[in-house]
Design a protein that fits this description.
Growth Hormone, Chain: A, cell membrane, Major facilitator superfamily domain-containing protein
Length: 467
């Protein structure tokens, strides 16, 4: 019992100085949380590959196969605005990491019998549980990376961590091309291979949950975030959540952008097999891996640009380029059309994490709740792919690209506002010039000792925690 008391997950709401961590002090927790970004990148990439795989092995339509995306991304608002956000506000980031990983592992185990009995509906239910787990992880990990360390590097930090998400999306299609598409439609091993993949995922995430439980990562409270907002002189932090209009616009932009991104990736294999002559699903899965590689490279390139250019300008350029390159894919076929999608994915790379970082600027004590609203925008991934699937069934996968194009245009309104409307622009710029966490001071060691003392007091005497 002593071990469990020492590692109590309860968190208070007093200021812990964790919002003033220097770059050096934040390296370990950032590296640990970055592993989570690879995990859901892998899961997301795996889902895109399974979308086509189930069309082949189970003989279902494009519209019905989008049920995978609907189950996966439809779970996000339930997590980010519901159970995960409640745990985040009452118990803290670490508890949500463990909760999300546990749900992820349970969903992966449930997927086993569903695949064994060729139950597409059952597998969608397992994906829904996995989506709740990943939605929980995103609810905590994105804001944690954003606030853990010097505020001026928040956009760079979250994009760098999200780059490992991109690596995960590369690995999954490569795995799919060699594991899922090597068997014929009637071969029982065509689905059996999927079972082993999900069993391996379950084992890994349960082990990772144990690592998080025993890892001493700093907890960042609402009081810490209020301190950041006050120190950067952002004067909107004290407004009630319902009047945080920038936040709501960011959430809407995230809904439109994520829906469009998921639609493009989910039907990439369909697009290539239809528009590029003599291309098999296995070959198209390898092309998808290449496109996701372009996505990962785009993130690293975006981080490099943000070192010299304000993140909001990089955001505007990248999202504008997405619109420019996806439009020709509607009419261009073969290698030309596929190249346009490669470029689209390259410039999609920084959009999601940058919306998270910019949308959370200046929320202060509303940071944890606000992050839930932005992550809830991921539900767009449950709405746009079915619309795409219906259009592709009626017309073609190429013509259906007009659907994500229109949603990208809607998301672009946020990029315009954050660059040209002072109400949006000023809070973003004040954080990029903040000195918090930038300089090593003589009191840093004393602050760390004070933080550890506060955390030790809350874990040894959990009843005194402010819940």
């Amino acid at each position: 019992m002593g071990v469990f008391k020492t590692y109590s997950l309860r968190a208070g709401n007093s200021e812990t100085k964790a919002a003033e961590l220097t770059l050096r002090q934040s390296i370990y927790p950032i590296c640990l949380v970055t592993i989570l970004f690879f995990l859901w990148g892998f899961s997301y990439g795996l889902l895109d590959t399974l979308n086509k795989h189930f069309q082949t092995t189970l003989g279902i339509s494009k519209a019905r196969s989008s049920g995978l995306q609907a189950a996966y991304f439809g779970a996000y608002p339930l997590a980010s605005l519901g159970h995960a956000n409640w745990i985040l506000r009452h118990y803290g980031y670490k508890a949500v990491f463990i909760w999300g990983l546990s749900l992820y592992g349970i969903g992966a185990l449930i997927a086993w019998p569903c695949i064994l009995h060729r139950s597409f509906g059952g597998f969608c239910a397992a994906i829904f549980i996995i989506g709740n787990g990943l939605g929980s992880l995103e609810t905590a990990a994105n804001p944690y990376i954003t606030v853990c360390g010097p505020p001026r590097y928040a956009e760079m930090r979250i994009n760098l961590s999200q780059a490992f998400n991109g690596i995960g999306t590369v690995v999954a299609p490569v795995l799919g091309s060699y594991v899922f598409f090597t068997k014929t439609q009637d071969d029982p091993a065509a689905l059996k291979n999927v079972q082993w993949v999900y069993l391996a995922i379950a084992i890994f995430v349960f082990v990772l949950a144990a690592v998080f439980y025993f890892s001493p990562i700093p907890e960042i409270t609402d009081a810490d975030m209020q301190f950041q907002a006050e120190e950067t002189h952002v004067d909107v932090a004290d407004l009630p959540l319902r009047k945080q209009y920038r936040l709501m616009h960011a959430s809407a932009a995230q809904f439109c952008y994520t829906g469009a991104q998921v639609a493009v990736a989910s039907y990439f294999i369909n697009y290539v097999t239809e528009t590029r002559p003599n291309t098999s699903s296995a070959a198209a899965a390898k092309f998808l891996a290449g496109a996701q590689g372009s996505f990962a490279i785009g993130r690293f390139a975006g981080v490099g640009l943000m070192r010299f250019i304000k993140p909001r300008w990089v955001f505007l350029f990248y999202l504008g380029a997405v619109i420019v390159f996806i439009a020709p894919s509607i009419t261009q076929k073969g290698n030309t059309g596929m190249t346009m999608l490669y470029l689209t994915l390259f410039f999609e790379s920084i959009i999601f994490p940058t919306i998270v970082a910019l949308g959370m600027r200046g929320l202060g004590k509303h940071t944890k709740q606000g992050s839930g609203w932005i992550i809830a925008g991921v539900a767009g991934g449950a709405v746009v792919p079915p619309i795409y699937g219906v259009t592709a069934d009626a017309q073609s996968s190429a013509i259906a690209m007009v659907i994500p194009l229109n949603f990208f245009l809607l998301a672009f309104t946020y990029a315009i506002c954050v660059n040209f409307v002072p109400y949006y622009r000023d809070p973003a710029d004040k954080f990029t010039t903040a000195d918090i966490g930038m300089h090593q001071t003589a009191s840093d060691e004393e602050n760390v000792r004070a933080t550890n003392a506060v955390l030790e007091q809350k874990t040894v005497h959990p009843k005194q925690a402010d819940i």
